[in-house]
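EI: anyone free to look at a 177-residue chain?
SC: sure, send it
EI:
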Amino acid sequence: MQNVPVELLFIGRVVGTHGLRGDLKVRPEAGSESLLAAESVVLKRSDGEMASHRPVRAVRHKGNILLRLEGLTSVEAVQPLVGCEVLVDRKGLPPLTADEYYWFQLEGLAVEDLRLGALGRLDEVMTTAAHDIYVVHGPYGEVLIPAVSAFIAEVDPAAGRMLVDLPEGLVEEADDV
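SC: here you go
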């Protein structure tokens, strides 16, 4: 096993190979931008074994990311990596602008709507072709909030809170909630 960083962040899973030159097809989780800019990735096998690799190519392709690793130049060389988790070192993530957050900074935040009050806890960030979706669970059940500036009023990870301004009809309201 090669030198593996300690603070690892799960950002996707190898779901197949692509072409003959050793490209891996990675299904990204939220935060896939960090995979596109990563100087190093860690692949974790189902048995827990981990190995660090240097990407030489990472590009978006049909909702996935094609990842080519240094020294692995054939489909035969990368086939055993299908199924691996793809992780990056949190310390190596590129800095973000003031209004940007990595998904791991958002998970667990208490989410409140300006009109409805407490919506629950942000449990997951899903990636779609259009934009990310915040998955919140609470008194209104599962609420899917498009991660677009029109709906997000304030994000305060230090306070553990996100304030949203949702349009009527996005959350199913019941009289007894």
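EI: The radius of gyration is 19 Å.
SC: 👍
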